[in-house]
Write a structure and sequence with these properties.
single chain; 133 residues; mainly alpha; 6 helices; globular
Length: 133
Amino acid sequence: MSPIARFAVASAAVLGVLFIGLETVRRGIQAWWTTPVTILEDYVAGILLIIAAVALLRSARLSWPLMLAAGAYATGMMSSSLWGQVEAQLKGETWESQQVTVIAVKTLLWLLPLTLSVLSVRELHRSPAAVQE
């Protein structure tokens, strides 16, 4: 397995667990009954990333397109969350008790899936036969 693939597998697996775990801790399991769509989007991102990591680990035929889809979904999901948090900080609104820490964590949770998306495009461009097999 290439170093890029190893990085992608590790990053996607960790991100997948983090999206599910952090959202569950942050909102609580009762969020499934009070705000199900909000918690569902993080679970979908986490599950997609974990599936993509397993597919890439097993060298599945469509692993890089799956990684691209998972990374793009997670990046999109985190975009509105991150930019909304930054805007609140700039306006002086306080959403969280540790606003700067939350922004730093959300930035990381935005940059890693974005990186996975870019790496996936690079791998697909480098080896388009992997998708056509």
